[in-house]
Specification:
The chain has 300 residues and is of the alpha/beta class. It has a domain of 181 residues: TIM Barrel, CATH 3.20.20.100. The strands form 3 sheets. It has an 8-stranded parallel β-barrel, surrounded by 4 helices. A two-stranded antiparallel ribbon has the order 1-2. The chain has a two-stranded antiparallel ribbon with strand order 6-7. The longest helix has 17 residues. It holds the Pfam family Aldo_ket_red.
Length: 300
């Protein structure tokens, strides 16, 4: 249940996304117990971002758990992201959402993340969104500095299309080891725009977020989504699976780029189903293409 991002770094095939951790309403001890429960099941990778949590506090919630149980740090991989600036109480001077990849901003955000996470380093830093005003040479200097200072071990991108990925990689001496983006049977734009194929070209394994389309896989709200649910249900029965989310996970895992899936849930039963989906009978090509075609992909 591992995905090898490069020779030195592997992550678990199921990644726990911590974007909604503040909504889980867990005590610090309960977060410790949840992390331990995940690690026992081979899930060792936890996905953060500096803006996660209504008050940007989710990294801090996780850090409090690591402070309570420091031995967990060397058993897990921590992913975090930065470059999104949002207007809220934490940023009273910001009036408009924007992206910022200036050197000093990224350095400041990484240091703040490390303080909140109570860590000396993060395993993987992702540039959260593509900044149209980015200076690729300056970004290269920034990433080099973070690596040389030991604050970040490896780097990747998030929500970058193939052109954006290649443009930044051209000017960056550090190899990006992944691209994190959305993909699900109700949203296949990242098949249509070539991002999944680009992962093969770049030799990277992607990290897929929102695999269940924010729950719409279970509760469709229009005829198209209802039709997709029926297709997933047919395949669920063919594969003798418990629920349709297992079908979706198998559909994503079937791609030869060897994706990891980011689950933004603290529900153990859903996580258990995802774990089961990573093994067992593989979806057939016909089943896989049936979902893709239902999603709107034109074969010819």
């Amino acid at each position: 249940m591992r995905v090898q991002l490069n020779k030195q770094l592997s992550i678990s095939k199921i990644v726990i996304g911590c974007m909604r951790m503040n909504d889980w309403k867990l005590s610090t001890m309960e977060i410790v117990q949840f992390i331990e429960w995940c690690v026992e099941r081979g899930i060792t990778t936890f996905d953060h971002a500096d803006i996660y949590g209504g008050d940007h506090r989710n990294e801090e919630l996780f850090g409090e758990a690591l402070r309570m149980q420091p031995s967990l740090r060397e058993k897990i991989q921590i992913v975090t992201k930065c470059d999104i600036c949002v207007p809220n109480d934490k940023n009273p001077g910001i009036k408009t959402r924007f992206f910022n990849t200036d050197k000093q901003y990224i350095l400041t955000q990484v240091n703040e993340s490390l303080d909140k996470l109570r860590c000396d380093y993060v395993d993987l830093l992702l540039i959260h969104m593509f900044d149209l005003l980015i200076d690729p040479s300056e970004l290269n200097e920034t990433l080099q500095q973070l690596r040389n200072e030991g604050k970040v071990k490896y780097f990747g991108l998030s929500n970058h299309n193939p052109l954006e990925f290649d443009a930044l990689q051209k000017y960056t001496d550090i190899q990006f080891v992944t691209n994190q983006f959305m993909l699900n049977p109700l949203g296949i734009e990242n098949y249509l725009n070539g991002i999944m194929t680009h992962c093969l070209k770049a030799g990277i394994s992607p990290m897929i977020w929102s695999p269940l389309a924010g729950g719409r896989i279970f509760k469709p709200d229009n005829p198209k989504e209802e039709s997709m649910k029926n297709v997933l249900e047919d395949i669920r029965q063919e594969l003798k699976l418990e629920t349709v989310d297992e079908v979706v996970y198998k559909w994503i895992f079937r791609h030869s780029s060897n994706p990891a899936i980011v689950l933004r849930t603290g529900k153990k039963e859903r996580i258990e189903r995802a774990i089961r989906s990573a093994s067992g009978e593989e979806m057939t090509r016909e089943q896989w293409y049936k979902i893709l075609i239902e999603a709107g992909y034109k074969l010819w």
